[in-house]
Amino acid sequence: MHLSKMALSLGQSATLRLNELANTLKAEGKPVIHLGGGEPEEKIPEGAYSASLKKLESRCIRYTATSGVPDLKAGIAAYTEKHYGVKPAAGNIVVSSGAKQAIYNFLLSVVDQDDEVVFPAPYWVSYPEMVRMAGGEPVILRPEAGSVVPTLAQFEAAFNQHTKAVMLNSPNNPSGAVFSADFIKGLVELCERRGVWLMMDDIYNRLVFDGQKAPSAFDFSKKPLDESMIVSINGVSKTFSMTGFRIGWSVAQATLTKAMVKVQAQITSCPSALSQAAAVGALTEGGDFVEKLRKGLQKKRDVMVAELAKLKKAKLHRPQGTFYSFPDLSAYDKDSTRLSNTLLEKAMVVTVPGVEFGLEGHLRLSYCGAEKDIVEGVSRIRKVLD
Ligand SMILES: Cc1ncc(COP(=O)(O)O)c(C=O)c1O
């Protein structure tokens, strides 16, 4: 059997594999606690529900324009203006099948063979493979020991004539860290000075705690959108608890957007018409769905942090956003895969090894599930480790 070199070189997504494992164990009746998940447990917004039903009742679910339906693009433009202070035109937006596809559209549109794409560790598990699939070389910046964010000087030092793009996810999956305004400002200036694309993965951007806001790259650029090097990736998966609808989008200058539309046209034609209708319903709903979700997650973050603090040798960076915590547990075991396997075997708790995010010695523990699972899960971990 002949498989492509690319297919053979691809690693399996650790998080999706662990999701499947947790589901299988649950189905077998094992008392497993899943702290490895990546989606809120909340039901979808009412607006998304009624808009999907209405679309379904029309019995007319067809291809749409490749870059998305006008209603959704208008909703995204208004949403972007409200939360990021930039009003994109329809020609600056591509709606895609999840934020993941928006990132692919971007990479396939800007990366040539062997171009370098720079991003910090810990990173979202998919970034390195996505860059490689686009033919590029991931350049990973590791933070100093004891920190989960690299410095601006590291970015500057990593740039060379092959650097095509930077990818930054703030707040960050898996650390929950929010990059500071000074950092984002410096990075925007650096990318603009060097003519390097800056892809901001804003998928958790509204899930920030303690009265803070995640600084937006657009705040620090004087360039009009159509001349900007900034590409913002967003979607309804996390903020609106709509992971299964697979709707994400990009906001970028028109020239890049046109290229991304061509890429998407040859891959999926368009995102699902039914899901787009649901996303319109979510974005145009007047209620406080996101705020309720955010507040609930902040409470669960506090529970997770309090429970982890009871571990004798854990070093914790207090998450400022998302629904992940990323404690340094290297004092128990430096090998995060072995530690994660031990916890699954002995405590029946699913966690994700830090090495999958490019930072050994850590585990990612999610707090998007039920509060009682957080308490019980970490207490089981304590019994095994302390
Ligand atoms: C940092 C980050 N970016 C992008 C995505 C992809 O989002 P979507 O489910 O909309 O494709 C995820 C999902 O886990 C993520 O954590």
Features:
386 residues, alpha/beta, Aspartate Aminotransferase, domain 1, Aspartate Aminotransferase, domain 2, 41% helix
Overview of the structural elements:
The protein is globular and about 55 Å long. The protein has helices at 5-9, 14-27, 46-57, 70-84, 99-110, 127-133, 152-158, 181-194, 254-267, 273-284, 289-309, 336-347, 371-385; strands spanning 33-34, 93-96, 116-120, 137-141, 163-169, 197-201, 230-235, 248-251, 324-325, 349-350, 352-353, 363-366. Helix 3 runs antiparallel to helix 10 and helix 5 (99-110) crosses helix 9. The strands form three sheets. A seven-stranded mixed sheet has the order 2-8-7-6-5-3-4, sandwiched between helices. It has a three-stranded antiparallel sheet with strand order 9-12-11. The protein starts with a helix and ends with a helix. The longest helix is centred in the C-terminal third of the chain and has 21 residues, at 289-309. By secondary structure, it is of the alpha/beta class. It contains 13 helices and twelve strands. Pyridoxal-5'-phosphate binds at residues 38, 98-100, 124, 169, 173, 201, 203, 235, 237, 243, 248.
Named CATH architecture of the largest domain? 3-Layer(aba) Sandwich
As a percent range, the share of strand residues is: 5-15%
Low-confidence stretches: none
Tell me the Rg in angstroms: 21 Å
Strand order of the largest sheet: 2-8-7-6-5-3-4
Number of discrete helical segments: 13
**Helix fraction by DSSP (H/I, runs of at least 4):** 40-55%
Mean pLDDT score, rounded? Answer: 95
Bound molecules: pyridoxal-5'-phosphate
Query: Could you spell the SSE succession in H and E letters?
Result: HHEHHEHEHEHEHEEEHHHEHEEEH
Number of strands: 12
Largest sheet: 7 strands, mixed
Shape: globular
Distance between the termini: 49 Å
Number of spatially distinct domains:
2
Assign the structural class, choosing from mainly alpha, mainly beta, alpha/beta, alpha+beta, or little secondary structure: alpha/beta
Supply the CATH class of the largest domain.
Answer: Alpha Beta
**CATH fold group of the largest domain:** Aspartate Aminotransferase, domain 2
CATH superfamily caption of the largest domain: Type I PLP-dependent aspartate aminotransferase-like (Major domain)
